[in-house]
Amino acid sequence: MSDVLWFNGRFTTTDERVLGVEDRGFQFGDAVYEVFKFLRKRPIFLLEHFRRLQQGLQKIEIPVPWDESSFQETIRELLDRTSFADGIVYIQVSRGEAQRAHFWPDDMTPTAIAYSRAFKFPDAAKKERGIRVITTPDHRWHYCSVKSNNLLANALAKKQAQRATADEAIVLSDDGFVREGASSSFFAVKNGRLVTYPLQDCILPGVVRDRVLDLALSARIPVDERPLREAELFDLDEAFITSTTQGVMPISEIDGRIIGNSRRGEVTTRVQELFDELEREAASS
Ligand SMILES: Cc1ncc(COP(=O)(O)O)c(C=O)c1O
Prior knowledge:
The protein has 285 residues and is α+β, with helices and mostly antiparallel strands. It is built from seven helices and 16 strands. The longest helix is centred in the C-terminal third of the chain and has 19 residues, at 266-284.
């Protein structure tokens, strides 16, 4: 099925083959992407996603093709043209198209795309049941704070998880610390406290992670932003991942070992409720 596509300032559909073979996003993974969710055609946490995109592009020296208001306007029109109410929007900005060479010309025009896509968000049963995860070494590059579309290491880790009948791979640093999921942020719960990796270049600053930290603060759930040791993983009360598409998702097993009593824990349930409520508010504001 074709989806509505915005490509460098005009609307078309994903049926049109818009990208050139020498686009640097295709040739070098020289691009930054974003994914946000919309409910009842309302974008959720749009500006947070835009700011992360902006920061990522600035970090790798790609000009940002929108300012805040032209971005909002593009997305408003994209969602107006979309035929379904709930889904995700995928955005990618590459350095642009040029004859293939590692050095890029100084005057490049970025290639920017945005398209909407229907998405099956987790239902109540899945949100209660949670997911199984595996751990695996982190083979990604040093700037995971940039949402680069160089996702090979993430994709290999996810495939490894799938082959082990798990849903997510949690990546570990060489010195044995728990960083994040291949496509999610990771939270542990121990003695009523949340533990999550501090914001550093080796993790993505998750939009949901950030919201969850704010919610925890207002709900007086203590948070430790510190690297968790791999050994601590097997002595946790609860664990969950967060992401735009999964929201707050409990973890029932890590590497085949049951976490807590295998059911969604109290703290995870509370954080999930608070986050779902916040999302509902965002969709009705
Ligand atoms: C590596 C990684 N970490 C964390 C996240 C969660 O980020 P967000 O909450 O902004 O969806 C993602 C989402 O794609 C991701 O790819």
